[in-house]
Design brief:
The chain is α+β, with helices and mostly antiparallel strands. The protein is 48% helix and 10% strand.
Length: 448
């Protein structure tokens, strides 16, 4: 017996025996459970990445080694450079705008009773696929105001402040006293005098397109010391019907047509035709030329060419923001729910107004959430494809091009799989730093 035993100290417990399950060690069991996921990960992720990397170093046929020629094309091909420039615009503006709108929606809806219903409506576009959203916004951005909602609103606002002409196609006919004056205006060939009755016949406007205020044209009556006349649609349907240069019973007056009297290049008098086309000018118009200004004949305003070369990229970004602002709002609202209310109330007690509380307290406390949302959206926009492919028409697709779309075009339309593989590898290299930043920030938050 040792001294320790003699002193009555209990013996040390024996080491526990390791138990083995019927399937082997715990590591083996874990490996068996992970094996299906690893097989799928290797087949669906690792193998395509490795194959794309190898294929990017071969030529179009895949038989000859091309070295870095495909990667050199990334910076020399005009289409790829345009796609890269557009991707930069996407990464800068789309996540920023979507995150900002999500922040505004989350803060504003926090204090209203119907905030939940509003959030539901804003989040609903997330349930729509990119394909469906692209078809919707292809219609929204249609050039025809009768079809496209964007141009219908834009034209409505424009016409409220600047009314469009009702006679865009009107022009002088045969044997007319009018001649072109440049810039789309028409002027009489001879000066007019007081007491005269002037006929200003025009053609080119279909009777069913005449304004509602137009009435049957009537010949003007002469007045002493004044100049009178009629401007009308000198056309009657039916072969051989009506008299050229004369007012016929079925013909309509140009209601609202503006007439100016011009002397030495200056307008000395002006008037507008009545519903029946008649007009009257004062004595100041004596010896002047009568001019129908170009404003009478300007084309109706048809809105903006949203899907044209200059606006197609902002238009597609707008549709993306419409879809993803709800996603940003939900995440930011969840972060906002965890903000200590004591800090907000303390700031208000100290005299801060709502804008100062928002800018100096709410936003700094939400900075980690805002960063996660913005970085997640950046990763998403780097691979945007569906919206651009569907919304941008063929005539503007080169101007709206992005890297994911150019990858598809090079790989399938142009049959250049080597360059397409190089673009995919380049996209992966762009995404990796953003993903690394996001994962690192999430781990930091977990440690806190």
């Amino acid at each position: 017996m040792t001294s320790a035993t003699a002193a009555g100290t209990p013996p040390a417990p024996a080491a526990p025996k390791s138990r083995k399950s019927v399937t082997g060690t715990r590591r083996t069991v874990a490996a068996l459970f992970l094996l299906p996921a690893l097989v799928l990960l290797g087949a669906l992720v690792v193998y395509p990445i490795g194959y794309s990397l190898i294929r990017s170093f071969y030529d179009q046929s895949g038989d000859s080694f091309a070295g870095f020629d495909n990667y050199e094309a990334l910076f020399t091909d005009d289409g790829i450079r345009t796609a890269l420039k557009n991707n930069i615009l996407w990464v800068v503006f789309a996540p920023t705008v979507a995150t900002a709108l999500g922040l505004i929606f989350a803060v504003l809806t926090e204090r209203v009773r119907w905030g939940t219903a509003f959030k539901l409506v804003v989040f609903m576009p997330m349930a729509i696929s990119m394909l469906a959203a692209g078809i919707i916004f292809r219609l929204v951005y249609d050039q025809d105001p009768d079809k496209g909602v964007a141009n219908a609103v834009w034209v409505g606002v424009h016409d409220t402040f600047a009314e469009s002409s009702a006679f865009p196609k009107a022009h002088p006919g045969r044997e007319s006293p009018l001649e072109p004056a440049g810039g789309g205006a028409f002027v009489t060939k001879e000066p007019v005098g007081t007491g005269e009755v002037i006929s200003l016949p025009l053609v080119g406007v279909a009777p069913d397109l005449m304004p509602d205020s137009a009435k049957k044209a009537v010949p003007a009556e002469p007045e002493d010391g004044k100049i009178t006349g009629t401007t009308w649609q000198d056309f009657t349907r039916g072969k051989g019907v009506g008299k050229l240069g004369g007012v016929d019973p079925a013909e309509l007056g140009y209601a609202g047509m503006k007439i100016e009297a011009v002397k030495d290049g200056k307008v000395v008098a002006s008037t507008k035709a009545a519903g029946d086309g008649t007009f009257t000018l004062p004595a100041e118009a004596d010896g002047a030329l009568l001019r129908l200004p170009a404003d009478n004949f300007k084309e109706p305003y048809n809105g903006l060419d949203w899907l044209g070369p200059s606006l197609v990229t902002p238009a597609v970004i707008g549709s993306y923001v419409w879809m993803w602002a709800g996603f940003a709002m939900v995440l930011i609202a969840a972060g906002l729910a965890g903000v200590p209310r004591e800090l907000l109330e303390a700031a208000r007690v100290d005299g801060a107004n709502e804008w100062q509380v928002f800018r100096r307290v709410t936003v700094p406390l939400l900075a980690p959430v805002l960063a996660v949302v913005a970085v997640t959206l950046m990763i998403n926009v780097l691979k945007v494809f569906d919206l651009v492919f569907i919304i941008a028409p063929g005539s503007s697709q080169d101007d709206a091009n992005v890297l994911a779309l150019e990858l598809y075009r090079k790989g399938f339309a142009s049959d250049q799989p080597g360059i397409a593989s190089a673009i995919s590898v380049f996209l992966l290299l762009l995404v990796i730093p953003v993903m690394w930043f996001n994962v690192r920030r999430l781990r930091r938050e977990v440690r806190r």
